[in-house]
Amino acid sequence: MHEIVTLQFGQQANHIGTHYWNTQESYFTYAGQEDSPVDHDNSFRPGIGADGTETYSPRTLIYDLKGAFGTLRRENALYELQQGEQPRGGWDGSTMSLRLPPIAPSRYQQALDQGIEPPQLTTDTVRFWSDYNHLFYHPRSIVQLSEYELNSSLMPFERWSTGEELFNNLDREHDLLDRDLRPCLEECDQLQALQIFTGLDDAWGGFTARYLERIADELGKGCRWVLGSQDGRRTSRERHVLQAANTAQSLFEMNATTSMQIPMSTLPSSLPSYVQLDPASRWHTSALQAAAFESLTLPTRLRDADTGHTTFDELETTLSNDGKRGVAAVKLTAESPDRLRNESLANGHHDDRMANGLTNGTTDNEDEHSDTSVNFFPELVPRSNTGRTLGRREHIFSSAESSRGHWRDVEDLSHANDDTRDRRLANHQTRTSYHQTQLLFPTLSSYPKIFRFASRPEKLAMKASVSASTLVADRIRQLEQNARGMIGLDEREALCDGLVTMAEEYEEGWSDDEDNEDE
């Protein structure tokens, strides 16, 4: 097996994780059905439930603050704690329990428990990520950090250093790797990767950076992918400055301990007409992020090489330039599967524009914003009156594309991979890999109706692409410039020098003149 262990840190990450795990659960097949193309053993651990029956639960650790779990409890219908929770310390005197009023389960959760058709969810009825969760988690997967409370105004969990300090204190007291992570790793036969969902622009960035540092110290190098969420909403200047400083520290500190970081805005600067979401709803924004990451990494969970199976390590080989480029940008395109197939049959081929500009190593910024893709990378510079982004033309060094549905004929897909491999060997052109499966993305009852197509399909064709390009370098350089005025003097030199070094990896052996010569 090639197991994937997931770590989830904070509210946005756990909303993403809930959509992700609900989707994984939907791939299970049962007696009398065809075998699922997804290998569940990669992401789920076998176990024995409280009644002695065999169970499957996600290979995940879920960290969040006090009050963030809603109605989710460590003990559930499948798993009971072997021992009751005991207070730590030597106190043997009398105690008095203080209990807050219990949170009433949502109507959606009540319907799931009763096995009946659940009501339609809305932004008003979703209070917590647990309100639309479909799965039972193992008790060890639930880790509440009671030192901070969700949405507290007295002790806000917002500064990078706050998360760093919290991890250091907890790890000193409990050794979090031994207590939480090591049991998960010991259940794996051949660990494929750690995938981490976290925030980059708040205190969770500091918590995650120190957690990954401990992992690297204990386990050495490994395949570790970080989906780092950034708040894309407009905010006050003071908060924007704080978020930018947090993001700069997160990207720099995690660069040495991760193999790939994928920053994803909660609200992309430009959305195609078929995407409609509420920017204030984590349920909405996380659904779009989860669809992109789940589709991008789907090949790492497939059973058969004939359906496009690959591994995280193989994706890294395409993207990272021997480990030197550890930050990448993600795009997502969605389409009605029937319309996609009909267009393919009518035309006899697919429009090259469907490749999101990833086939020739360069993109025209004016066309980039007129296509049907969602670009999750934060916008760097203002736009002119014509809508064109100001700045240099983007050059793509490497990219990987994962599509679900009939985007390409099998023969075209094979030729595309052969062609890019031959060009790379011949003249060091863009590294590109393509993977395709006919397993469509399910829009479950727990998934918000953010994709609006006239046919209202229950499943969607999707194409997710990840690329290392000069756009990443521009973003890192912008963060470095901002950090000079926001970070303390003691940390500024190492941080800014480190960010400059990271950006330079996306410019080595290339200049704007080369693209001009090609044209």
From TrEMBL:
<comment type="function">
    <text>Involved in the partitioning of the mitochondrial organelle and mitochondrial DNA (mtDNA) inheritance.</text>
</comment>
<dbReference type="InterPro" id="IPR029209">
    <property type="entry name" value="DML1/Misato_tubulin"/>
</dbReference>
<feature type="domain" description="Misato Segment II tubulin-like">
    <location>
        <begin position="2"/>
        <end position="114"/>
    </location>
</feature>
<dbReference type="GO" id="GO:0007005">
    <property type="term" value="P:mitochondrion organization"/>
</dbReference>
<feature type="compositionally biased region" description="Basic and acidic residues">
    <location>
        <begin position="336"/>
        <end position="354"/>
    </location>
</feature>
<comment type="similarity">
    <text>Belongs to the misato family.</text>
</comment>
<dbReference type="Pfam" id="PF14881">
    <property type="entry name" value="Tubulin_3"/>
</dbReference>
<dbReference type="GO" id="GO:0005739">
    <property type="term" value="C:mitochondrion"/>
</dbReference>
<dbReference type="Pfam" id="PF10644">
    <property type="entry name" value="Misat_Tub_SegII"/>
</dbReference>
<protein>
    <recommendedName>
        <fullName>Tubulin nucleotide-binding domain-like protein</fullName>
    </recommendedName>
</protein>
<dbReference type="InterPro" id="IPR049942">
    <property type="entry name" value="DML1/Misato"/>
</dbReference>
<dbReference type="InterPro" id="IPR019605">
    <property type="entry name" value="Misato_II_tubulin-like"/>
</dbReference>
<feature type="region of interest" description="Disordered">
    <location>
        <begin position="332"/>
        <end position="382"/>
    </location>
</feature>
<dbReference type="InterPro" id="IPR036525">
    <property type="entry name" value="Tubulin/FtsZ_GTPase_sf"/>
</dbReference>
<feature type="domain" description="DML1/Misato tubulin">
    <location>
        <begin position="118"/>
        <end position="302"/>
    </location>
</feature>
<keyword id="KW-0496">Mitochondrion</keyword>
